[in-house]
Amino acid sequence: MTTTAPSAVPDIGAIEETARGVVAAHPPRAVPVTELMGAWYDAGLTWVHFPKGLGGLEAPRSLQPVVNRIMREAGGPEPRTVNTIGYGIVAGTIRRYAGPEFAARLLRPLATGEEKWCQLFSEPGAGSDLAGLATRAVRDGDDWIIDGQKVWTSLAHLSRWAVLLARTDPDAPKHKGLTYFIVDMTTPGIEVRPLRQLTGRAQFNEVFLDGVRIPDPQRFGGIGEGWIVANSTLGDERTSLGDRVPARGSGAIADAIQLWHAHPDRHTPVLREKLTRLWIRAETHRLTSDRTRVAAATQATAGPGSAITKLVGSELTQHIYEFCVDLLGPTGTLIDTYSPDAPDDESGPTAIQRKYLRSRATTLEGGTSEIQRNVIGERVLKLPQELRADKGIPWREIPR
Amino acid sequence: MTQEFEFTEELTELRTMVREFCAEVSPQSVVRETMTTESGFDPALWRRLATELGVLGLAVPQSFGGEGAGLVYQAVVVEELGAALVCGPVVGTVCLAMPALTALADDTIRADYLPALVNGDRIATLAAPTAGGRFSADHVAVSATRGENGWTLSGHLAQVPDATSADLLLVAAGTETGVALFAVDGDAEGVARTSLSTLDLTRRQADVTLDGAPARLLAGEDECAAACERALLVASALLATEQVGGGQRMLDETVAHVRDRLQFGQPVGAFQAVKHRCADMLVALEQARSAAYHAVWALEDGTDDPRLAVSLAQAVASESYRWISTSAIQLHGGLGFTWEGSPHLYFKRATTDALILGSAAEHIDHVAERTVDLAPTGS
Ligand SMILES: Cc1cc2nc3c(=O)[nH]c(=O)nc-3n(C[C@H](O)[C@H](O)[C@H](O)COP(=O)(O)OP(=O)(O)OC[C@H]3O[C@@H](n4cnc5c(N)ncnc54)[C@H](O)[C@@H]3O)c2cc1C
Prior knowledge:
A: 400 residues, alpha+beta, Butyryl-CoA Dehydrogenase, subunit A, domain 2, four-stranded mixed beta sheet, four-stranded antiparallel beta sheet, 14% strand, globular, disordered N terminus, B: Butyryl-Coa Dehydrogenase, subunit A, domain 1, Butyryl-CoA Dehydrogenase, subunit A, domain 3, seven-stranded mixed beta sheet
């Protein structure tokens, strides 16, 4: 594991100047994203808390929002959108587990978006109960042979790399028999089949792994320690969300407010109250995210926790688009197309209806709301665990 | 001044000090005893808070006996007093009268009244006409007359917080030219106070009838409106932090209870219906905490429209506290409905807090007027 101690007290002014220099030399609106993000990476601005040479400056993480703002104000992309899974959960794991040379090979194209990443975790038989997964990894000399099936894998059809969780010891209790790998998606034996979503589009996939050979250096962490590695990754995703605090009234609630003013003929006191309540929830959610960020940066007190912001944000998004469709009335029953090839952004004449449909995923992806409530109850409030039928017994003997 | 939501070590120490003091000096047994006494509070305890701890005038300038530390400090104290349900004139004196007096321009007046409130010698309250928790000159119920021996006030003031024990009544009264602010001694001639029987026994109110009561003019029309408005905003923000304090205590007690209580051979907290309700209580509490402290910071450093921030805080904290306290009753089972159990004390406080400075519904309406009803900028 690599730990980075700040080598010198970093100078905020100098870092800001570096960031301004990069966006001046590579104007975000004029140059390709890969060039811009490459220069950003080379200057150590992608993850300021990473080591030098790996996209960082060994600076405090609290400076990330500062440089991200400079990027945003110059018209650059929100970094996560360049490579969602790569930024959200993979980069931190590579830094911790890949060793400097391999990390250098992987991180730059990840940062520029040239090599996209996906997450091969969920399986038909293991979603919420991820640790119950069945995909096997068997040692063969210096390699591992993978057999199994993954499902709901976002962006697998566009990805060059994947993180993969597989079972190396079926006789150990479920959490103890897992090992974490990274896989080159061009390896023979991998088949990606698009899987249509309720929106009509196919942004996620089924992934079949048949005798896929992975060299041992692509194993991250010890054999049987996959669960620990996977959890360190989940922690990264939660903290990285705090690198940006949106402006008041932005995001989904902006859609609702705009729609409200576009349809004065449909105003009623009941809808006005509903909208105001949604606005209040959006604003307190925004303030709570900000409080989490400040708490993390100043360390004086523990923040409210990422499970809370995930739970609140996901349910709020759904309620906002439910309101929007109600406000639309009969028009809310129309959708422009269910074509799998419809553009990726929720645009077009029925953008609201598309977002309404897409919002059903927010309380499922990344852990369902029920699981978030379990996490808050058991990990934050320290309530007793439910009785677990599979506790302590070998994975092989668990009914499935 | 710290950045919004930065709870420094100093604030944490202040919180710990007040919490420990309350646990030792005003545990629930003491609260229960005090709330059944005639006055409903213990002046000796109030004085200890003022002098020993020095936590009543944290937002009052040093030149008038306070600490000048600011509203965030005062909010942390109010939150802790609310968590412990400490009996005393928190609303009348700390939340309303002190900010009203502090907002006045005349140093002589401030010096005459504030130090005695800060050091706990005297108790005060504010009776200002309001609608939906906001100052409203239209609702003034007392008239002021200027005679040979100065001003006198007459009229009826309903449900004034802490008026029974107040040495000083700050009264907004109608003059020929508008509404002005006056000081009336609590035991002056022409002042009749009737204690009311309150739902929350730890929080007292009284009806006050003024019949030619001698009064001192503190502020003319413009200044009176500004001072009352400021006092109501500060009081609403502080009350929101009290709501957070009470909600946190109820959540803590509920979680402790469901961890210990065994049914069907396991702690009831292992059942998801119970666990998820606890999780939702925490979620509601954290939203309220964000909104409440945002309002406090907004009043302190002017980073947001204070009226919007305060109404947001009141709307969220009122509903959260009441829901958390009713959830506490539910999850305590029969114990939750028992007089000896603590949930009902918080439930009654939550109900009262949600109504005295404007209801959640009224504050939601205020928020609507400042957000949803306005055309989006740029369109
Ligand atoms: C749009 C989208 C994108 C996704 N992208 C990816 C991806 O890129 N990579 C990847 O690996 N996965 C991905 N997923 C999968 C996602 O992580 C799972 O769908 C999710 O974890 C739920 O698992 P499941 O679908 O098997 O539901 P199940 O676990 O079968 O759950 C069914 C229902 O039971 C409830 N439930 C389950 N266990 C409990 C419990 N202990 N207590 C209470 N209730 C419980 C659930 O909350 C749910 O309501 C994606 C999903 C979606 C919708």
